[in-house]
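Hi there, hope your week has been kind to you so far. Would you mind checking whether the C-alpha cells look sensible for this chain? I owe you a coffee for this, so here goes:
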Amino acid sequence: MSLALALLFALPVIIGGAVHIGAIKLDLLPRLRRLPLDGGLRWRGRPVLGENKTVRGVVVMIAATSLASGLVWLLLGRPGLEERGLATQAAHPFAWGALLGGGYVAGELPNSFVKRQLDVAPGAPARGVLRPLFWLVDQCDSLVGVVAASSLAWSPPAGVLGGLLVVTLLVHPVAALGMVALGLKRRVG
C-alpha cells in the first residue's frame, strides 16, 4: 500500500519530468532556455548554479507537474485521491502539482551549487571519492525538495517516504537512460 501511494504521490512529478525531457529534446521555449536561473552570477569565480539550470526548467517543471496533478485528479477523482490519503491533492490538484514541481526544482539547486564550487561541470560526474556520493545525491536531491515542499500541506507517513525513496532510485536512473538514448546526456551515472 505504501509503495502504491508513493507511486501515486510521485506520478505528477514523473510526468512533469518526462515533459521537461521533451521540452529539452524539442528545444521548446528557447528564450527561457537561454535564461540561466542564477542570472549568470558567479561566486568565488565559479558559476552559482551553471548552464543547465534555466528558467525554462523551472517553468516547465512547475507547469507540467501542476497539469499532471490535475490529470491524476481527473482520472481518479476527488474521492479516489481522498480514499488513498491524498486529500490535499484532491482538494487543490493544480496547486499541489505546482508545489511538488517547485520542490523538485528547489531540491536540485543546493547540489548544483556545491558541484559548481567543486569545479564539477554541469552534467559531468564528480571525480574520485566524491563520485559515488554525488551519484546518490543526484538521485535523491529532488526527492528531498519534493518532500520538503509537500510537507507545507501534507506530511507523508514513514512508509510512503520509504516508498518514495524506492520509486526515486528506480525512476531517476531510468529517466537518465532515456536522456542518454535521446542524446540529451552523455552518461547515466
